[in-house]
Specification:
By secondary structure, the chain is α/β, with parallel strands linked by helices. Helix content is 38%, strand content 24%. A five-stranded mixed β-sheet has the order 3-2-1-4-5, with helices on both faces. A five-stranded mixed β-sheet has the order 10-9-8-11-12, sandwiched between helices. Strands 6-7 form a two-stranded antiparallel sheet. Strand 1 and strand 2 form a beta hairpin. Helix 3 packs across helix 7 and helix 5 crosses helix 6. It starts with a strand and ends with a helix. One of its GO terms (cellular component) is cytoplasm. It is found in: Cytoplasm.
Length: 245
């Protein structure tokens, strides 16, 4: 089995794939290495190798990789920045500055359809990237996601205070809010959805209607009712398989 790891700044997403079928038999999200090892323990004896994408510092990534290799007894390949991968040419002036998780999502999207595409990743931040039919990454946009929008209002506005239960309940509708929680959550959600719709309009004005629209990330569920968007939750992992086959 292959252990796949997506190491963000706060959490580590992981899954274990069956070699040959690529079926995901185990997986989860961990806040620490110890929590990760606890989750992986059920399948650790079946692991043969691993691959990792990390947005952490080089030192942190190296330490994490070394620790896991020592405990699990497997070798782990780490994705690296590249000018070209899987038929996609990196569009950044300094290709190494493009976030690795974002880059792998772009590569994965092109590997699925091999045509013009818009790739949306909705997490703490929201990213949007454009790929031409020839595989040229045209660049993209970065904007605050729901967590950052909410946090900024709660940090800089004294009376914006409510808990996570209120937040979940408030976001179930988009009619004007009748409480602070409803007003904030629905306002932020409308901003997010407006950003997404603007990106879709721009992609279509650039490529015409022959464009694939992909969404991934923890908050992608907030836009899955937009019918033209294809939700691919494991897009970064798919790109990781291209980078570290």
């Amino acid at each position: 089995m292959i252990l796949e790891l997506d190491c963000g700044n706060s959490f580590i997403k992981w899954r274990a794939l069956q070699v040959g079928t690529n079926d995901s038999l185990w997986g989860g999200v961990a806040a620490s290495v110890s929590e990760l090892l606890q989750g992986v323990s059920a399948c650790s004896k079946q692991l043969t190798r691993g691959r990792m994408v990390s947005v952490r510092s080089d030192a942190e990534t190296k330490q994490l990789c070394s620790s896991l290799e020592k405990v699990l007894g497997i070798s782990i390949s780490c994705a690296r920045p590249s000018r070209e991968l899987g038929g996609v040419v990196n569009g950044y002036d300094d290709y190494a500055r493009l976030g690795l998780d974002r880059w792998l999502a772009i590569v994965a999207a092109y590997s699925i359809d091999a045509r013009a595409a818009l790739v949306l990743d909705l997490g703490t931040a929201v990213t949007a990237d454009l790929i031409s039919a020839s595989g040229a990454h045209l660049g993209g946009y970065i904007a605050p996601g729901m967590p950052l929008l909410r946090h900024q209002l709660q940090t800089h506005t004294q009376r914006v205070r409510y808990d996570s239960v209120e937040a979940v309940s408030a976001a179930r509708e988009l009619v004007p809010g009748r409480s602070t929680a409803e007003a904030v959550e629905r306002g932020c959600l409308l901003m997010l959805r407006s950003f997404v719709k603007t990106q879709i309009e721009y992609a279509r004005s650039t490529f015409g209607n022959d464009v694939s629209l992909f969404a991934t990330g923890g908050d992608a569920a907030l836009i899955t009712d937009i019918p033209v968007v294809r939700y691919v939750p494991d897009l970064v992992f798919r790109g990781l398989a291209v980078a570290c086959p």
